[in-house]
Amino acid sequence: MRLPSVYSSRVARIFEDAEVSRSDIEWTIDACMLPKEGEQQGTTRTAGMHARNERLPFPEEWNLPKVSPALWKTLNVVSVCEEAELVESSASDMFVTTKRCLAVFVPKGIISLDETHNIYQSVEMSSRVWLVTGANSGLGLALAEHALSQNDKVIVTARNIANLPASLKAATPLQLDLNSSQADLKAFGQKALQIHGHIDVFVNMAGYGLESPVEELDADELVGQFHVNVFSAIYLIQGLLPSFRARKSGTIVNVSSIGSIDGGPGISAYSASKAALDSMTDALAQELAPWGIRVLIVQPGFFPTNWFAAAEAMGKASRAAASRKTGAYTDLYGLSARVLPYNLSIRRVGDKDKAAQRMYEVVTGKGLAEGLDLKKDWIRLLLGKDSGERYAQKMQTWKENIDATEKIWSSTELDPAKVEEMRKEAGLN
């Protein structure tokens, strides 16, 4: 017995005991939401799923925990009804749930239906749906290819989808210009949601680097750097979040850079944009925690991709602007072209395919991430030995800085008497 594809890719589970087989679980489906004759796209209908006195084998891929016989007697399967909407689907026109539809096992007389979110965990029932921007090359391409190899559904974006490689033929391509307006980017996120009815993982991979010293930065180029690397990510996320919150699930992955905390000369705008992305993502993770939405910051080190060639090309264009040339920073242009030779000289070169696999594993809890007890406020994933080492060195420098200036930063508090006076005025005494 399988849930038809119109149902959500997650069901609920509670209890970790393991003594009853899947075939002992009693339930069936009340409604299969195929469109009725004459129904048009956008039609909504209520769907239901509840218990019946029938014994049906549980699909093996659900991987639900078994329940002890004594505990089984206290359980009851409660129906949960949600709305479904007729949308365009790769599996033909059919009803696809726009909200999560769950079968929830509830201890009788202990909790009510609206409290179930406190006792269940989600488990996979079918493939994940990924939305990966910047998937036409580099780490984005490697991640999309790996997700497809795991039989997941992948939506990929590129500024020109004609440039997408043949290895992504199983993915759904969407054209996306990150220079678009807030309204257009939010609408794009909503459009992407309609393809499979939901998105499980959004990976904000697309971006670029601008070579230029601070003194010679052009205002339009600086705004463009932030629009693509920061603002577009925010706008796309805004388009996706209503669905993520309604389903109380989802993962957002913002791909940053080790340069966000260890910026170098000549790429100040890029480093600043990634630092802004990091700070926004830190706040976002806290804002979305009540809905169980996971947020990650990925900070890669050096991986040989075409990012560096693109940055060099943009640097040449900036350098050609005669009105901004000072002649003082000649050596800071063309740094991107020297990164690969330098890393080869010290034998420190990342493998983008391995990095993509590690990203996939951290998102899914598989492979090297299986059993890893990641605390909810551990939202950073470093990729590459250089990234880890540079991060550790930066933290050491920060620690030394903090320790050395402690007598200064600790001397700026209000006098205790003044604090007590303010507390009294605020009614806190």
List the helices and strands and how they pair.
Blueprint: E1 10-13, E2 26-29, E3 44-47, E4 49-55, H1 69-72, E5 75-78, E6 82-87, E7 94-97, E8 104-107, E9 121-124, E10 129-132, H2 138-149, E11 153-158, E12 172-175, H3 182-196, E13 201-204, H4 219-247, E14 251-255, H5 268-288, E15 294-300, H6 307-319, H7 335-345, H8 352-364, E16 380-383, H9 385-404, H10 406-409, H11 416-425
Parallel strand pairs: 10-11, 10-13, 11-12, 13-14, 14-15, 15-16
Antiparallel strand pairs: 1-9, 2-4, 3-6, 5-8, 6-7
Structural class determined from secondary elements: alpha/beta
Question: What Rg do the Cα atoms give?
Answer: 26 Å
Overall body shape: globular
Strand content: 15-25%
- The separation of the N and C termini measures 63 Å
| Assembly classification | single chain
| Main sheet: strand order | 12-11-10-13-14-15-16
The helix/strand order is EEEEHEEEEEEHEEHEHEHEHHHEHHH
Count the DSSP helices: 11
Short description:
With 429 residues, the chain is an alpha/beta fold.
How would you describe this protein?
It is globular, with a radius of gyration of 26 Å. Helix 2 packs across helix 8 (352-364). The chain folds into 2 domains: 1-31 and 65-123, no CATH class; 129-383, 3-Layer(aba) Sandwich (Rossmann fold), CATH 3.40.50. The chain has a 7-stranded parallel beta sheet with strand order 12-11-10-13-14-15-16, sandwiched between helices. The chain has 429 residues and is α/β, with parallel strands linked by helices. Strand 14, helix 5 and strand 15 (294-300) form a beta-alpha-beta unit. It contains 11 helices and 16 strands. Residues 1-36 and 42-125 have low confidence and may be disordered. It comes from Bondarzewia mesenterica. This is Ketoreductase domain-containing protein. Pfam families: adh_short (PF00106). Residues 128-303 form the Ketoreductase domain. Belongs to the short-chain dehydrogenases/reductases (SDR) family.
